[in-house]
Amino acid sequence: MRFSSSGASFLPFLPSLSGYTQELFRADDQTIKACSELAHLLPGKVFLEDTPEYAKEQTSYWLAQQRSLHPQCHVAPSSAAEVSAVIRVTTANEARFAIKSGGHTTVAGASNIAQGITVDLSRLSSVEPSDNGSTAWLGVGCTWLDVYRDPKVADAGLAVAGARVGMVGVGGYVLGGGFSWYSGRYGWTCDAVLEFEVVLANGEILRVNTHEHPDLFWALKGGGSNFGIVTRIKMPVFEQEDMYSSKAWYEQEYLDGVLSAIEAFNSKALDPDANLFMTIVYDRMYQLFRNVIMFVNTGANTSSSAFLDFSFPTLENSTSITDMGGVSASLDDYYNKPFRKEKFTLTFYNSAALMSRIAAIFRQHARVMHLDEKGPIAMTFQPLTASHLSAGNNALGFSAADGPLILFSLEVYWSSPSKDEYMRVHLQRIEAIMRQEAQNQGLLHPFIYLNYAARWQRPFESYGARNLKRLTAIREQYDPRRVFKDLQPGSVHL
Ligand SMILES: Cc1cc2nc3c(=O)[nH]c(=O)nc-3n(C[C@H](O)[C@H](O)[C@H](O)COP(=O)(O)OP(=O)(O)OC[C@H]3O[C@@H](n4cnc5c(N)ncnc54)[C@H](O)[C@@H]3O)c2cc1C
User: Which domain of life is it from (predicted)?
Assistant: First the structure.
């Protein structure tokens, strides 16, 4: 253990929603005391800034903004009992904290905290299939690639319906919903969850499923970090077939045809194993837009009829037969860039005409944004088929009547902290223009996906007044002191 509490002095704690602005302040006495107590309680699991473990942990965040937040200590419990000890000590000292599973949130300050305590769950990384191989307990600190490549899963030819990109953490992804290559068949990943193990604010460890604490079970499926620290998640495991994956770069002139094909793909939903998303990236060097679609079929079928409408001329095309690990690792390379980033999301009814307008607005603004030399700007349309939306009993607020939808997101990457405010203001403006456009056409769906939402967006309100009220009541029941609201200032609150 390398722990020392020297060098920190008292300054009053100033609560702020934007976690990273707190960097200006030094840790308060309670936080220093809590780190010290935790170091005695959990030897070798508490790290201060001068340690290599701390430095390594800081680089594990997807957002550069989160990498530059410096907590007073990182604490890395390796069991639910240790998480319970961490939450008891932290709350007894009224110290501020952040919870981190994979560190891939899009909200700066949601899973790291300047001068507070970061609860790093990466040591909760076991993958434990049941004896008959039909279910598995997943530690929340696993990345999805850890799960797909775990020998007990991969060598047995098994799969779990997790994230499409390997480096994403199990914990945050499931608590926000979770959009998988298997969503056409099984819905949101949270819909498939069989059980959660959760540590409440008072340190109690609960097993939460359809029979035990069913209200909390529902709330955790989309409710984020408002109820407790989830330590393990039990998921179904199933046999994996070969996975077909293909990327096609379409010429600009075929954009409207491609968007019509996406609308048809989504409304016909011919094949529950067929998935796609379309990204438009602005290439600043050549000052042009590139339209790429990723097609994946989770069944062995390499020529799904669902993809037939996409036979437009392409600039480039690549195809492979692989598995969940292969597809998710291939996407890691693209996304694993240590930039500053900002992202927002909207949800639209299924319409090629609206997608075309949204793409036009994107093109107009992407050109004029003063972008960093290397940082891309990109937007993505993802079909949400009716079966995906209506598969489960979750807090997200969908019904089958919502029909097929389009999940939209826009993200921008840059390097200099001096551009943070500029990027936020600009993105917020683009979001307002796009929202208005969709609203004018009567094609705006209220859903804001927690896992893609910007700090300024209100995902829980988008679940509908009834669900928000129910979530709040469940929060009052399981966290009456509002520990996860008041002491976790950077997270996304109800
Ligand atoms: C490159 C990339 C690819 C992505 N691909 C997909 C995709 O295919 N499908 C999809 O649906 N989403 C995807 N996402 C979005 C992703 O689901 C969210 O960013 C998610 O929050 C990441 O989870 P995490 O554990 O890595 O994040 P973290 O940053 O660790 O946590 C995110 C939030 O959840 C809270 N939290 C984390 N763990 C716990 C826990 N155990 N208990 C209580 N609260 C917790 C944190 O406090 C924080 O508020 C992707 C994101 C990135 C950056």
Answer: Eukaryota
